[in-house]
UniProtKB/TrEMBL annotation:
SMART domains: HTH_XRE (SM00530). Residues 13-62 form the HTH cro/C1-type domain. InterPro entries: Cro/C1-type_HTH, Lambda_DNA-bd_dom_sf. Pfam families: HTH_26. Transmembrane segments: none annotated. This is XRE family transcriptional regulator. It comes from Viridibacillus arvi. It comes from the Bacteria. GO terms for molecular function: DNA binding.
């Protein structure tokens, strides 16, 4: 099972930088970059909620599930 993080896609659609998102979320740019690059092992629901609020999207717009073949 693979969870794909499409945060970079949503940032591009919203024309928002990692720096701007970081400031609006109140978390470090390093942590936003970890999420954006798919390197995160977990995400808190409260963080996911804030991301969805700031980017005006649904969790499914950011996270995608791919089954291993």
């Amino acid at each position: 099972m693979v969870i794909i993080v499409n945060l970079d896609v949503m940032l591009a659609k919203r024309k928002m930088s990692v720096t701007e998102l970081s400031g609006k979320l109140g978390i470090t740019m390093a942590n936003v970059s970890i999420l954006k690059n798919g390197k995160a092992k977990a995400i808190k629901f409260s963080t996911l909620e804030k991301i969805c609020e700031v980017l005006d999207c649904q969790p499914g717009d950011i996270l995608d599930y791919k089954k291993n073949d």
